[in-house]
Write a structure and sequence with these properties.
- With 279 residues, the chain is of the alpha+beta class.
- Among the domains are: 119 residues, Lambda Exonuclease, Chain A, CATH 3.90.320; 74 residues, no CATH class.
- 45% of the residues lie in helices and 14% in strands.
- The chain contains 9 helices and 9 strands.
- The longest helix has 42 residues.
- It is extended.
- The two termini are 26 Å apart.
Length: 279
């Protein structure tokens, strides 16, 4: 979807958009493993901002879109765009936020480059780079588990902040920002799933009707104005594990394998707090 939004932005900027798609900017820090790929470069200024600027496109669900539109961009978006401006040596950026449910719902945010903010990000990148080379300084790392980055950190097992968050999570205690995000995501998920059932039933009903109509006429393939429908005969060979277990239980036990997996269960109470907050 972001590519489509970039093309819409290109039209609205009268062609003053550069470095998109295959020629997207690939920005690298000269000394740190610090890089970024903005969605484009806006040439010739924008809305009173002079010179070239960075374009970053973001998509969000309805609840998240309404929250960001009213409260502003989250910190991780601001960090990302400040990094892009710093690496590209540009002084401003345009962030376009689009609702996934309706492309016509857009919100724009302009940010100016903040040298102090960028310097702080460089310090964090330098500390992380040093930690990868010298495990002796890992006690200096200050984790930010509420932002989700610590989960994949190679030093998370020795990070006090991350360990404390994991212990709190086992008790069902999570950061408020995470709780709000989960509530909005689950609300949107419940809304989508409530409409999915009737749609899926109708899809199954229509497919059965089409298949029955072909079988009644004896036709295996019919060419219509809007496409081709056909019945394809096929077969498959499967392994009868139940028969093996019954006839040769010892062999079955030797090759039996137990796999662990996680299942997400959501009990929807029907409350719509995020929509109430947005309205």
């Amino acid at each position: 979807m972001e590519n489509e939004v970039v093309q819409i932005v290109r039209l609205s900027l009268n062609g003053n958009l550069r470095n998109t798609g295959r020629v997207q900017l690939d920005l690298h820090h000269p000394t740190l493993p610090f890089h970024a790929h903005p969605d484009g470069r806006i040439a010739g200024g924008f809305d009173g901002l002079e010179g070239d600027g960075v374009l970053e496109v973001k998509t969000a669900g309805a609840a998240t879109f309404n929250r960001y539109e009213s409260e502003g961009l989250p910190q991780n978006y601001r960090d990302q765009v400040q990094t892009q401006m710093g690496l590209a040596k540009l002084s401003w950026a345009l962030v376009v936020l689009v609702s996934r449910e309706c492309l016509s719902e857009m919100a724009t945010f302009t940010l100016r480059f903040d040298p102090e903010h960028y310097a702080h990000l460089e310090e964090r990148a330098a500390l992380a780079a040093s930690a990868l080379q010298d495990s002796a300084i890992r006690e200096q790392l200050c984790g930010e588990p509420e932002r989700g980055y610590c989960y994949s950190c190679p030093y998370s097992a020795d990070c006090a902040a991350y360990i404390a968050q994991r212990e709190a999570g086992k008790r069902g205690e999570i950061p408020e920002v995470t709780r709000l995000q989960l509530e909005c995501q689950c609300e949107e998920l419940a809304s989508l799933e409530s409409n999915l059932g009737p749609m899926q039933e109708r899809v199954t009903e229509l497919r059965d009707q089409v298949k029955s109509a072909l079988l009644c006429t004896g036709a295996n393939r019919v060419v219509l104005e809007n496409g081709i429908i056909q019945i394809v005969e096929s077969s498959r060979t499967c392994f009868d594990s139940k028969s093996l277990q019954r006839e040769a239980p010892d062999v079955f036990a030797r090759f039996q394998k137990t796999s662990k997996f996680s299942t997400l269960r959501i009990n929807d109470k029907g409350d719509r707090q995020c929509q109430s907050m947005a309205s």
